[in-house]
Design brief:
Number of helices: 15
Order of helices and strands: HHHHEHEHEHEHEHEHEHEHEHHEH
Largest sheet: 10 strands, mixed
Strand content: 15-25%
Radius of gyration: 28 Å
Low-confidence stretches: 23-44, 77-100
Helix content: 40-55%
Length: 394
């Protein structure tokens, strides 16, 4: 009976060791063990199996070889976990070994907007070198807060990402409390694209220069209306900053989204709109609106004949919108670095650059640390504007 138990113990030890070794090196097997968790399970298993194997064949030469193999595997796993950490691997976020779904990117706004378009262009290229796919999901509502909260409360495993734009740093000043921590719950990865805002009027306005708009606004304070995508949105706070910089008074008319605001401009409900350049491109190309100025430091490549706001009468005024990616708190740094690298590679693709050029957007790819500084600086800047303008959440 004792001999039978020893042989059964040996058989089980061999089978379990093979299974655990396969889990260490094969994505399909390793996924079932859950990343680093399965490696920690290996350490315990290897120790137990070593004792079982030594007890099964205490004097046989094969036991010495077996112990050597187990010892090597044990050391390898310990170094991977407690040393420098294993490199980020696709199976850490993949749903299955074939790479059918590698990650999910939550977009806080409806399809067709600049945040959605930029994110989809980049997502199509991310993971391509590893055969992975990033799925974009539009999770709209509450000015983006539903998606931000969902992302902030997701596991920090690199699977769920959240797209953010220039309106995200507005939130801390707009709301006394948020269901997530703005400073820490969404970790910056990078900015995918930057784009200027453009000051536009309807063709019916019979205004062809920013100087004409400024003259009218100064002659009739608060008589000229401007539209926005909603209270506290990026173009709302940018327009308030523009008003202050230009020394004019305009009346705010909020809409339910930039599409409605653009329609309001073209139908005469509002007189002027300051919006991200990609949002205005189709109507600019169609001749339905007139560009008066861009808010970048230099003229836009897609609108070389349109002056900057600084050139056109508001010295020093510079503002830009951007679209970036974040990950939930707790996402390992090597995962953040891998994701950053995937975005940078995507931005270097010719088709991505061509699409961005058509949108009037510039590829970025700044480091996570640089992006974190943008988030801090923008939050401070917009907080000051919001206080000065008396903007309150609806």
């Amino acid at each position: 009976m004792f001999e039978l138990l020893r042989r059964v113990s040996l058989f089980c030890a061999i089978a379990l060791t093979i299974a655990l070794l396969l889990a260490s090196v094969m994505p399909s097997a390793g996924q079932a063990f859950g990343g680093d968790l399965h490696r920690r399970a290996h350490l315990v298993s290897f120790a137990v199996l070593a004792l079982a194997w030594r007890w099964s064949l205490p004097r046989a030469p094969v036991s010495m070889v077996a112990l050597g193999v187990i010892g090597f595997a044990f050391l390898h796993e310990a170094i991977e976990i407690f040393g420098h950490g294993h490199p980020y691997e696709m199976e850490d976020v993949a749903i299955n070994a074939s790479g059918a779904v590698t990650g999910l990117i939550l977009v806080p706004f409806a399809a067709g907007g600049v945040t959605d378009i930029v994110t989809r262009v980049v997502a199509q290229r991310m993971g391509a070198s590893s055969g992975g796919v990033f799925i974009v999901e539009n999770k709209t509502g509450a000015g983006g807060r539903i998606a931000y909260e969902a992302g902030a409360k997701s596991a920090g495993d690199g699977y769920t990402l959240v797209a953010v734009d220039g309106a995200y740093p507005v939130l801390p000043a707009m709301y006394a409390s948020l269901p997530w921590d703005y400073a820490s719950d969404l970790v910056p990865i990078t900015i995918s694209a930057q784009m200027p805002f453009v000051v536009v009027v309807s063709t019916n306005a019979r205004i062809s220069a920013l100087s004409e708009l400024l003259a009218q606004a100064k002659a009739s304070p608060a008589k000229i209306n401007y539209g926005s995508a909603g209270v506290g949105g990026a173009n709302h706070v940018v327009t308030e900053l523009f008003k202050r910089s230009a020394g004019i008074d305009l009346t705010h008319v909020p809409f339910r989204g930039m599409g409605d605001a653009m329609t309001g401009l073209m139908t005469g409900s509002v007189d002027v709109l300051i919006t991200a350049l990609p949002t205005a491109m189709s109507n600019l190309k169609g001749g339905r609106i007139v560009p008066l100025a861009v808010t970048s430091r230099e003229r836009s490549k897609v609108l070389p004949g349109v002056p900057t706001a600084s050139e056109a009468g508001v010295p020093g005024f510079v503002a830009s919108n951007w679209v970036g990616l974040t990950a939930p708190r707790g996402t390992p740094r090597n995962v953040i670095d891998w994701l950053h690298g995937e975005v940078v590679r995507a931005l270097s693709a010719a088709d991505v650059r061509e699409r961005f050029d058509a949108l009037g957007a510039e590829p970025s790819g700044i480091s996570p640390e640089e992006f974190a500084k943008v988030l801090r600086d923008d939050a401070r800047r917009w907080a000051e504007v919001i206080r000065a303008a008396g903007i309150r959440a609806e």
